[in-house]
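Backbone-to-sequence.
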């Protein structure tokens, strides 16, 4: 039996509690939150659940094997560090930390103590993303050319991080999962309409040594909710619309080829538009698969899909993006560990 303590019962905590509580050989032994009313609500839904307003109860308990952190970003580092120092495996809600130095420190601490450190990049376990991974690996798409993401909605406006830190980690994690090439720099612009210096709209471009390029559009100020990813290859292209109830991804047999004629200094572009097909996807809840992966990584000493190294790369990209915004969109090199 793996015994888990969950710290944080705000927006995402209830989903984590529900999924971990449903797993075999797993027991959520303790729920920690600063709000007694939220804890009381949880005890009504989950009879017999032990609760506390003090995170130290999770760290000091010899009965707890792992800690799940679902709190605001600025608390991730200190809570995860304390858990690791007390010999607990750790799962942290995205992003891993609020800066790369803290992320590197946590990874080194987890390695030193031979503990699992994992980030909850839930989208990596979605059936659509898993299918996209297969299609990139088996060569169906050909050479990858671009990744384009739009993640916009009205709210929820955060008070501690800007819109990129809030929304972009989902798609940055997917980008790193589908394309192993290490990015070299970013350009980012953003603006705050809420008069607190926190950008509620931002645009991020991630640059690579090859001709591959990635772009992210994030906003808390859109009248409509859009969750759209495009992955373009030399042979085929994928559209992932997460707002679709069933046909979430479509594969387009569409591409173009270029011929050059140096004597005439002309470029001839040949466009090919073929069939569109809709692959069958797994319908298992991604968060359930993420929770299972965390448990399996502990019990079997395996590296999880949503591992700390990928979480750190996302933080390094976001960190460079924040610097670029401050420099009015200037290119900023990504500091990779």
């Amino acid at each position: 039996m793996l015994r888990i303590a969950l710290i944080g019962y705000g927006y995402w905590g209830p989903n984590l509690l529900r999924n971990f509580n449903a797993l075999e050989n797993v027991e959520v032994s303790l729920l920690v939150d600063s709000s007694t009313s939220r804890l009381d609500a949880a005890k009504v839904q989950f009879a017999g659940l032990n609760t506390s307003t003090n995170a130290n109860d999770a760290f000091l308990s010899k009965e707890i094997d792992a800690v799940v952190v679902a709190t605001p970003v600025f608390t991730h580092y200190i809570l995860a560090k304390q858990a690791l120092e007390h010999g607990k495996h750790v799962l942290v809600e995205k992003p891993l930390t609020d800066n790369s130095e803290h992320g590197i420190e946590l990874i080194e601490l987890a390695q030193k103590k031979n503990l699992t450190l994992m980030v909850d990049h839930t989208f990596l376990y979605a059936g659509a993303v898993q299918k996209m991974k297969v299609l990139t690996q088996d060569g169906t798409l050909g050479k990858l050319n671009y990744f384009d993401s739009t993640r916009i909605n009205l709210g929820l406006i955060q008070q501690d991080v800007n819109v990129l830190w809030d929304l972009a980690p989902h798609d940055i994690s997917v980008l790193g999962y589908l394309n192993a090439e290490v990015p070299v720099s970013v350009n980012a612009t953003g603006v705050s309409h809420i008069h607190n210096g926190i950008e509620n709209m931002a645009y991020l471009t991630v640059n690579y040594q090859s001709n591959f390029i990635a772009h992210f559009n994030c906003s808390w100020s859109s009248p409509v909710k859009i969750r759209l990813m495009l992955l373009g290859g030399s042979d085929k292209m994928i559209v992932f619309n997460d707002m679709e109830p069933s046909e979430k991804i479509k594969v387009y047999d569409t591409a173009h080829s270029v011929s050059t004629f140096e004597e005439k200094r002309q470029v001839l572009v040949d466009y090919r538009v073929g069939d569109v097909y809709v692959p069958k996807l797994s319908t298992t809840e991604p968060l359930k698969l993420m929770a299972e992966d965390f448990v399996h990584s502990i019990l079997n000493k395996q590296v999880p899909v949503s591992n700390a190294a990928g979480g750190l790369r996302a933080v390094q990209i976001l960190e460079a993006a924040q610097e670029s915004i401050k420099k009015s969109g200037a290119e900023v090199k990504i500091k990779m560990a």
